[in-house]
């Protein structure tokens, strides 16, 4: 299946300068969306970017889908979900800039907050 997919769709390569440029462009677009929505200063809505997802470095190809280079594998989805949840519980000044692939799920407490700023 991968061979057939890659025959019809040129993703620009899984690694290297092209993928890095695509990632930077994608991140810039996400920042723009967040900035536009947060500028509205809505009382009950905000967009909070999680820096852990901006400087993502995969430890191996097993973290990528077998179909294409864009989608994460089941393993990566599990690890990214844990990291994203844990970082949503962290105050802005305590958010790590990189993912720890061996993170354990943090259970929220009665005092936990989902940080948006």
Describe this structure as you would to a colleague:
With 117 residues, the protein is an all-alpha fold. It has one domain. Helices cover 38% and strands 0% of the residues. The chain has 3 helices and no strands. It has helices spanning 2-8, 17-39, 74-88. The protein is globular and about 40 Å long. The N and C termini lie far apart (42 Å).
Explain the layout of strands and helices.
Elements: H1 2-8, H2 17-39, H3 74-88
What key phrases describe this protein's structure?
117 residues; mainly alpha; globular; disordered N terminus
The first-to-last residue Cα distance is: 42 Å
Low-confidence stretches: 1-9
Q: How many domain modules?
A: 1
Number of helices: 3
Mean pLDDT: 81
Q: Can you count the beta strands?
A: 0
Q: Main β-sheet, in a few words?
A: none
Return the string of H and E elements. Answer: HHH
Helical percentage: 25-40%
Structural class, from helix and strand content? Answer: mainly alpha
How much of the sequence is in beta strands? under 5%
Morphology call: globular
Radius of gyration: 17 Å
Write a brief structural summary.
With 117 residues, the protein is mainly α. The protein has one domain.
């Amino acid at each position: 299946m991968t061979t057939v997919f890659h025959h019809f769709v040129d993703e620009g390569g899984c690694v290297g300068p092209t993928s890095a440029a695509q990632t930077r462009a994608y991140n810039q677009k996400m920042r723009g969306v967040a900035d536009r929505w947060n500028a509205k200063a809505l009382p009950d809505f905000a967009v909070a970017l999680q820096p852990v997802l901006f400087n993502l470095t995969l430890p191996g190809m097993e973290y990528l889908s077998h179909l294409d280079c864009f989608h994460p594998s089941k393993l990566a989805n599990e690890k990214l979900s844990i990291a994203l949840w844990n970082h949503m519980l962290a105050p802005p000044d305590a958010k790590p800039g990189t993912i720890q692939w061996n993170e354990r799920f943090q259970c929220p407490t009665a005092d936990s907050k989902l940080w948006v700023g």
